[in-house]
Write a structure and sequence with these properties.
It is a single chain. The chain is α/β, with parallel strands linked by helices. The chain is built from ten helices and ten strands. Strands 3-4-5-6-7-8-9-10 form an eight-stranded parallel β-sheet. Strands 1-2 form a two-stranded antiparallel ribbon. Strand 6, helix 4 and strand 7 form a beta-alpha-beta unit. The radius of gyration is 18 Å and the shape is globular.
Length: 282
């Protein structure tokens, strides 16, 4: 697999011709003043996939970095998310269109727009989804999906969605929180699984098994965790504002974890107890 995967590798989104880069760059808690520079550093390191959200308050900065980079917009994949319903489909459409404009200008588009959370009830989920469907029809959004959705939330969507299944489900994923039920469900239905917190916010950097594997390959623990995600067919979204770590986190294509190493990391799973942000409710 090491020879097959590269930083340019992509994964197809269901029911479309859209290809998403398999490695993303997260910008959660990247301040407005820092975010542009971090994204430019990531672009120089080869990343072409950026994950923002209305909640992060840095959508405009991601868009500014893309503009400053001089790289063709069509070569960069941009994601954002709506956290909470504004009350109606029309108000949600307006709220999401504001994000598109902030990131890409009034004549631009966002590659992927997600519902950030299932919380708020079925009406809220339905109103947000139908607003995203409208934006997709208007070509302001190329693909749409969800985040932190469990099996029941995605099944429920069948009652109101024109676009089903959602093209992506972004959830917390790392060896200590593997969320196997929802991952298996998504893979069965062709839903691409994105992994947020793939580095566990460095909380497991001194785990003995992780350290043993990283030492065996001469790699950082973060590189091993990113490689693990890639070999699980997840799309990892590592986040850093440190220029050296941004580069290092993309240098994961010159080694491969063995079946035994993958199994050792699999055995670290703690189920929902292993989540540091949120495990889905199925």
């Amino acid at each position: 697999m090491a020879s097959k995967l590269t930083i340019s590798s992509t994964i197809p989104l269901p029911n479309s011709s859209i290809l998403m880069p398999r490695l993303g760059f997260g910008v959660y808690q990247s301040t407005a003043s820092q975010c542009v520079q971090s994204c430019l550093n990531a672009l120089r390191a080869g990343y072409r996939h950026f994950d923002s959200a209305q909640f992060y308050r840095n959508e405009a900065q991601v868009g500014e970095a893309v503009k400053q980079s001089g790289i063709s917009r069509s070569d960069i994949f941009i994601t954002t998310k709506i956290l909470a319903s504004a009350g109606t489909v029309a108000e949600n459409h307006k709220k999401c269109k504001h994000s598109v404009d902030a990131m890409a200008g009034s004549d631009g588009y966002v590659d992927l727009f997600l519902i950030h959370s299932p919380h708020g009830g079925q009406k809220a989920r339905q109103d947000m989804w139908q607003a995203l469907e409208q934006l997709k029809e208007e070509d302001k959004v190329k693909s749409i999906g969800v985040s932190n959705f469990g099996v029941s939330h995605i099944e429920e969507m069948k009652s109101y969605a024109k676009v089903w299944p959602p093209q992506v489900n972004q959830i917390e994923l790392h060896p200590w929180c593997q969320q196997r039920q929802i991952v298996d469900y998504c893979h069965k239905h062709g839903i691409v699984v994105q992994a947020y917190c793939p580095l566990v916010r460095n909380q497991k950097a001194y785990d003995p098994m992780l350290m043993k594997i990283s030492e065996a390959h001469g790699k950082t623990t973060a590189q091993v965790l990113i490689r693990y995600c890639l070999q699980k067919n997840w799309v990892p979204l590592p986040k850093s504002d440190n220029p050296e770590r941004i580069v290092k986190n993309a240098e994961v294509y010159d080694f491969e974890l063995s079946g035994e190493e993958m199994e050792s990391l699999d055995n670290l799973d703690q189920g929902s107890r292993g989540a540091i942000v949120e495990a889905v409710v199925n």
